[in-house]
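Researcher: I'd like a candidate sequence for this fold, 107 residues long. If you have to choose between options at a position, lean toward the conservative one.
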C-alpha cells in the first residue's frame, strides 16, 4: 500500500512538472507576440511564475497561473508585464508601459 501511495505522489509530481512546462512555453509564446505587437522587446526571453492556484471556469477545474516578465521600450530601460493563463488559454496580458498600461483581456 505504501508503494502505491509513493508512486501516486511521484506520478502527480511528474504530471504537475510537465503541465507547468507546457503552460509556461504557451504563455511565453503569447508574451513574445504581445510584446512584438506593441513594439517593445521581451527581455531575457523568459517569464517566471508568480502564483499558481486551483480555479474553476465554466465548471472546469484547473490551475490558474500568474506569470511576470520584463520588457524594454528602447533596450536600456526595464518595465514589468503580467500574463494570466488557465487551461492552455491566456486570460489577461498587461504591459506596465511608461506611457500608460497596455491591457489585453482575452475572455
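Model: Candidate sequence:
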Amino acid at each position: 500500500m505504501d508503494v502505491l501511495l509513493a508512486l501516486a505522489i511521484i506520478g502527480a509530481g511528474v504530471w504537475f512538472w510537465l503541465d507547468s512546462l507546457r503552460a509556461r512555453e504557451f504563455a511565453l509564446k503569447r508574451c513574445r507576440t504581445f510584446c512584438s505587437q506593441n513594439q517593445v522587446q521581451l527581455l531575457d526571453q523568459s517569464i517566471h511564475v508568480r502564483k499558481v492556484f486551483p480555479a474553476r471556469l465554466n465548471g472546469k477545474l484547473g490551475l490558474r497561473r500568474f506569470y511576470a516578465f520584463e520588457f524594454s521600450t528602447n533596450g536600456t530601460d526595464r518595465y514589468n508585464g503580467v500574463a494570466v493563463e488557465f487551461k492552455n488559454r491566456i486570460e489577461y496580458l498587461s504591459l506596465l508601459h511608461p506611457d500608460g498600461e497596455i491591457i489585453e483581456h482575452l475572455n
